Structure formats: structure tokens, C-alpha cells
Amino acid sequence: MKKTDDLKITLISLHGLIRANEPELGRDADTGGQIKYLLELARELAAHSHVREVELLTRQIIDPRVSDDYAQLEEEIAENARIVRIPFGPKRYVRKESLWPYLELFIDQTLQHFRRTGLPDIIHGHYADAGAAGAQLARLLHIPYVFTSHSLGRVKRQRLSMGDNVDIDKLDRKYHFRTRIEAEEFALETAAMVVTSTNQEVEEQYQLYDHYQPERMEVIPPGVDLTSFMPIDDKWQTPSYAEKLNRFLREPDKPMILAMARPDERKNLETLVTVYGESEQLQEVANLVVVMGAREDYREMPKGQRMVIKNVLYLIDKYDLYGKVAYPKSHASADVPELYRLAASKKGVFVNPALTEPFGLTLLEAGATGLPIVATNDGGPRDIIANCKNGLLIDPLNHSEIEQALMRALTDHEQWEEWSKNGISGTREYYSWSNHANRYLRDLDDILEHSPPPVLKKTIAKRRLPDFDRLIITDLDNTLTGDDESLERFKEMLNENDNVGFGIATGRRLDSAMELISQLGLPQPDLIDTDCGTKLHYGENLTVDSSWRKSIGYAWNPDEIRKVLETLPGLNLQSEENQSEYKISYELDTRTCPKVTAIKKTLREAGLRAKVVLSLGMYMDVIPVRGGSDLSIRHVLWKWGFSSERVLVSGDSGNDAGMLLGRTLGVVVGNHSRELRRLRNRPRIYFAKAEHAGGILEGIEYYNFLDNIIIPNDKNE
Ligand code: UDP
Ligand code: LCN
Fold it and tell me: What are phi and psi of 554, to 5 degrees?
């Protein structure tokens, strides 16, 4: 039993630009509240007496277009809290939607990081990308997992598709919604606790997911840094930043309608400018200040953000709003609290008309400085306004409602004073980070008390698989077999190179795999991974991997799975010799069976946890959540301390996909089946022209695997 004394917490957040000082918030669509949330959470947790260390894992970025700060491998956030930047995928800065193919590389790199620095007690993934990667790490290492989505794919997809003439396929391509939603499902399935910011997220947003388990969800709202976001006092003076706004405004003393958000479609800034542009009364009583992050060269911004800014500029021109609207080019992070105070000093209002807003840290910041708010009637704003009573909710698609709410805040002075006061006191009462950390740690206590210690303690890692310095792991059927001549050459290669270890990863059962291995005249494998990544044995005596064996049965309920799948059409159980303890195998009648996604859904809805793997388009294996060649091969490498760069893996069909991903050297043989086509653009996966064992030999040559290994397709090195 582990209590939360002396905790090491690993937070993971992969996209955007994260640095401890002067975070560049609002710079683009990937640098929003999540970054602020994480930095403040890390600081607060690290200050807690129960916590030994907090590390925030993110991506190392080496790119002249961004600051060198993001290239540093480590950076201190506060005492006991640091950012660790893991190199993976392209060195350059890329948008979050382009990170998906590189997550397995992150996982492998992070395993090496853990080997050097020790395992954490808790892994906490943030947003879908780190959500999926963190879940995979947690499953592999058996460390309890916590997930926070920050915003959800299904909800964003729904909201963005509500307008007229929306091309949903285009949206799916742009935002990779399918991948994102699948990642969120996986994170939700793995999480022992989901930390959400509002009740509405639990009740209406997470509810859209198959793995909705409200009993595992905890509403713990974030806080706001109350030392920076203080109201105006007697000593307050107009900040120099005001100059930057005054350049735009004909009557700078007028009240200010302030909006501040990343230039992202979801933030709906165009609607705000339209409402202001069409309202004579709003233009009469107030200026509009739209802060959309900082831009150096507009033309170098990513397309999505450029579009938002272009539309805002177009609308300013269309409604001829010159002299009434300010849209400053840049600001430092220290300017942000001053900006709210400046708006409050002029009896202005903060507006957030986002199409959806899971939380909205800007609303806390405005509230804490005494600036009333008008915000979208959605998750965060609803809770914040219910607690603090510091403004009005609006429908972000209803122009006249937005106009009226803004007018009320700007013209009803008594109301303004009350909202301003309420915001200052309400944020202090309900939204402090220390409350957040106390509740969070109490909940972790609970989770840790009920979790067994991680199976793979660091001490095991010192051992090594014997006698070789590199390892080939290959699938049997149709990869190694199928062409006798090249198989002979493969065997010769093994004979001539004592330093090369030999591993088999197959969907077959151990007995049938061993029979085939001996028929083919192959040497006894050093490692044999059978039954679709559910059983691991080593060496001459087929020694069982006992730590793997102990953990594989987790949440495995084969009788129920069979019963539930019996009800579906087109699923025929394969013969008994293909079934095993941790694998239920079906042959599909592809004319009548449901799609694999529907089969997975049926299992989830029945409360059953399992992985479903399709091979050769017609064979389907159902295995435990902790099984599969992706996890089994990583388990082997982790346990034996083998560097993934010295391991070549080869396969031909769907059940090999998992092990081909990641930092090992992948080879897909020429005769591969359709399921593997999606791996074509992955780094470190070579598609050989030659078929069967000839393809493996081609891959060996490609990586110069028998000599000084080179990795030609690696985009990072
Ligand atoms: N922010 C900023 N400058 C900008 C836009 C936003 O500093 O131009 C900061 C803002 O102060 C807040 C965060 O970015 O701390 C935005 O968080 P919020 O939760 O409101 O929205 P998100 O961007 O996460 O959707
Ligand atoms: C993402 C959002 O969109 C905001 O609503 C949240 O405040 C932020 O993350 C932090 O959780």
C-alpha cells in the first residue's frame, strides 16, 4: 500500500510551446490555457509537503522560428518541479494535428528517460495526444493513470459542424477527429481518475464517449494566480501597455470591450467583431480591443490562425471600424494582468464568445482583477458565473443577445460595481490552486492505496538478454515463411552472426509456433512472443516471463466476451487449436459481419475491456487490454534494458502493426496486407520491395543492421 507521501508525479503535455518563464500564450492555436494550467499545477503540487518531485514532460523543439528555450532538455519551473523535453518526431515546431504519427517514439524515449531517472508514482496525461501516450506508458508500467482532456474532440466536432454549409469530411481531415477521439477513448478507458474542470463536462461532454465512467470523474476546477491577477488599488497607475492600444483608438478614454483568445476558429472572434460592427450603440459607448496572441510576421503564421486574423481585419474594414477597434500585435505575459486592470479602470467588460468553452481561464483572470464578464453559455463560464455572479451568459450564435449583454455591462453602473466586486471575491473563494492541489492529492491517495506496486521495478532493468548486441524480431507466417530460397539465406545470416539475437512474434500458439520453427529448421529463438502478444518465453528452455504472466490477465473476461460476440452476425470462432488462454480468435464473414469499430463498441457497451486486432482482413483476435505485440515487445525491451535502436522488427499484417511502431527499426515485407498501408509515412518503418524473408533481408541491408546501424528514414536524427 502506497500513501501519497514522497510522491513523484509525471505530467505529460505534448503539443504547443511550453516554457517556465514568459510562456507565449495565444501565439497560435496550440498555446492556450492548457499550458498555463500545467505550469501552475506543477508549481502548486511541487510546493506540497507530500510531493517529492513533479516533472512535466513535453517535446523538445529545435527550430529557428521559435525560441531556443524549447530546445533545452530540462528547465526548472520551481523547487522540485521541472520541465523535461523529450526529443521525438521532427525537430521543428509542428501543429498538434501533425504529432499523431510520432507518439510511439515518445513512448520509447520516455521509457529510456524513466530508466535513467526512476519511475513515477502517477502519470497524468493532458489532452488527447498526451492522453493516449500517457495511457500506453501507464499500461505498460502498471502505474496508475490520470487524464484531463482540456477540450474534447467529439464536442468540438459537434460544435464546428453546426454552421451552414459545413463540409464535415473536410473538418475531419483538418482536425484528425477520428484519431483524436480514438485517443480520448483509450485514455478514458485507462484512467483511474479523470480530472475535469466542470460538472457540465462530466454530464454533457464526456458522456458522448463510449468509455464514460462518471464514477471515475472528479470535478476539480483550476485556479488563477491571485498574486498576479489582483484588482486595482490606490497605487495603481496606467500601464505603459496602454500606449499600444491608444495608437488604434480615436477616443481611448471610452470603456473597453476586451476579448483575449488564441486566434482559433472555436473562439468565435469574427462573430464578436460582426456584432460590434453592426451595433451603433456599442460603438457609441465603447471601444473594442481584440487581443489575439502575438504575431511577428503575419504571413508566417499557420493557415488556420492566419484565416482568423484575416477575417477580423476584413470585418474591421467592412464595417469601417477604424479608430474604434484595437488589435495589438504583441504583448508580454506581464502585460496580461495590466490589460484586465486597464479595462476595469475604464468600467469595461471582458467577453468570451467561444463556440464551446470547456473552462476558460481568461474568465477567472478577468474576474480576479474586477472586470465583469460576458461569456458563452457552456461548461466553464456556466460554473464560473454561477459561483461568482460576475456577469452574463450568452448564446455565441445569437448576435442580439451578445449585443444586449455587453450593453448591460457597459451601461448599468450599479450592476457593474456588483459584478466587479463579486468577481474579485468569488474567484478567491472558489478558484485557488491550493484548493485544487489539496483535492487532487486526496484523490491520488485513494487511487494509490488501491493500486498494486508497479510490476517492473527499475532493478530488473540491469539484466541483459545474453550474448548478443542486436536483435531481430519477426513474425512467422508469411513474413519469415512463404519463400524457401530467401528463408535459407535468412538462416545463413543468423548462423554467421552470433551477435544477432533472434526473436519470433506470432499470432500462433506456443506449441504450433514451436512445431513450425522446427519444421523450417530455424534455430531456437532467444525470445518467443506468441498468441498475439499475450505470452512471452525465452531461450532453450522456453522460460516463462513471469512478470508478464502476472499482469496479462488484467480485466480479462473471456467467457463474457464470447457470449457478447456470439450475438453478432458473421463472426465464426476459429478451430480450438487457434484459441488460447488470452486470445479468442474469429474468422469473419466479411459480407455480413459488422465493422471492427462497431464490434469494439459492442464490447465497450457491455462493460468489457479488451483489444480487438484484425489481420489479413478476415482474422480477428480479441486479447486482454495489456496484451498485443506493441506492449509485449516494449515490455521485453524495457525489462532487459535493450536499446530500441538495436532491434529490427518485421511483419506483414495487422497484428504486427503495434510492434512496428516506435523507435525500433521496422521492416514491412513486400507481401504485406492492407492493414499495414497506414504505416507508410511513419518514421522508422521501411517498406521492402522483396517479399517474405527476402523483405527482412532487404530491411537488414537498408539499416546496415549487421554492421554500424544507420537509420536513413529517421526524421529526427
Ligand atoms: N492568453 C494570453 N494572450 C493571448 C491569448 C490568451 O496570454 O493573446 C492567455 C490567457 O491569459 C489565458 C490563456 O492564454 O491564461 C487562455 O486560456 P483559456 O482557458 O481562456 O483558453 P484556451 O486557450 O485554453 O482555450
Ligand atoms: C483548454 C480550454 O479550451 C480552456 O477552456 C481551458 O480553460 C484550458 O484548456 C485549461 O484547462
Answer: -55, 125
Name the residue with cell 482583477.
369
Per-residue pLDDT reduced to its tens digit, 576-631 = 989 999 999 999 999 999 999 899 989 988 989 899 998 888 999 999 988 999 99
* Pocket flag, ligand 1, residue 26 (CB < 6 Å): yes
336 Cα–ligand 1 center, Å: 10
Closest ligand 2 atom to residue 148 Cα is 11
Range 7-223+435-449 has CATH code 3.40.50.10860? no
Q: Cα(316) to centroid of ligand 2, in Å?
A: 28
Alpha-carbon distance values, 377 to 265, 357, 395 (Å): 17, 8, 6
Q: How far is the CA of 348 from the centre of ligand 2 (A)?
A: 24
User: Helix, strand or coil for residue 255?
Assistant: coil
Rounded CA separation 328/248 (Å): 8
Q: Which fold has domain 555-625?
A: Hypothetical Protein Ta0175; Chain: A, domain 2 (3.90.1070)
Measured from the Cα of 31, ligand 1's closest atom is 23
Residue of minimum CA distance from atom 1 in ligand 2 = 150
C-beta of 80 in contact with ligand 1 (< 6 A): no
Q: Where in the chain is the domain with CATH 3.90.1070.10?
A: 555-625
Task: Provide the H-helix boundaries in 163-254.
Answer: 168-175, 177-190, 199-200, 242-246
Give pLDDT tens digits for 399-436. Answer: 999 999 999 999 999 999 999 999 999 999 999 999 99
Q: Where in the chain is the domain with CATH 3.40.50.2000?
A: 7-223+435-449, 242-429
Nearest atom (ligand 2) to Cα of 197: 11
- Indicate which atom in ligand 2 lies nearest the CA of residue 36: 10
Instruction: Kindly report the CATH class assigned to 455-552+628-717.
Output: alpha beta
CATH of domain 242-429: 3.40.50.2000
